[in-house]
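To whoever picks this up:

The nightly regression suite flagged DUF985 domain-containing protein as changed. Nothing in the input moved, so I suspect the structure step. Input below, exactly as stored in the fixture:
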Amino acid sequence: MASSTPKASEVVFSLNLKAHPEGGFYSETFRDSSITLSRSQLPSQYEELGEGSKDTDLEEITASPKCRKGKELQISFSSSQNRRKDIPPKAPQPPMSNYFPPRTIPGSQPTIKSAMASKEMKDAADMAMSWWWFDASIPFNAARSKFFQPMVNSIASIGAGYKAPSYDDFRGKLLKKSVEEDKVDRPVSTSIYFLLPSGSVSHLHRIPCAETWHFYMGDPLTVFELGGDGKVKLTVLGTDLEAGQRPQYTVPPNVWFGSFPKRDIDAYSSDGSSLVKAPTRDPETHYSLVGCTCAPAFQFEDFELASSSNILALAPHVEPFIHYLTLTG
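Regenerated output under the current build:
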């Protein structure tokens, strides 16, 4: 790096960065709350997240006081609660869909009532719905709505004689109630500065939103991705376009990913089964400064940190990288 480039501690101080739980230092620069996203507007990967767990294991993250002087760049963690070890955590509650007739759940058995229904009865029910569907000019892709089958299940749980809502019901009280229940406190996007000094890594983690990385200054940074199918992808952020580096890159939602300064690794095999670390470098003069933009907005409730014991089964062929990018456990 050129002599005119500021030291890492100077950047941390100037940009008011603080320690990040996944490694490195960050500062949120923008949270767009001008738009409040509803549940139906969130991507499908948010459907089971709800409002997010409030029982987080990371309550406070503090940087070592020496980091501003450039002598030490460390992260310390503190537990969010003093939990009694003899009391196990509560089991997650099943989704509400479990309380409806289960015949539509993949792999489940039909109810006795539906199993005993004749083919003629099922055909009659399908045609009754079809005549209403066609007469009302409802688009065919409405059948793919995530609310379609729950509606059918709800009606079936009541049985014959259910009186459907009226025109005025839909336009009035039901519309108002659905808007109120559909609201969620989720800004449309967030952006941060992120500084990763040499010798540090951004540990493997995943979030349910897309995250776009922007390279600003310093050493090139390698982004490591691990998909649910065990496939690995490495992308280098930097300004050397001829070498294949990118000034911007987007990590898809729900992908395990982490990052490390590219020059901290001397070499690695094409299949990721081995890697050779470079000699230790001064983190004050060797670091990467990037930006990260999430849409929908990032919230720590969504943040899931990987551990080597849990992630190794997914991709044992890249064990060296997993140990390099995860916390022991």
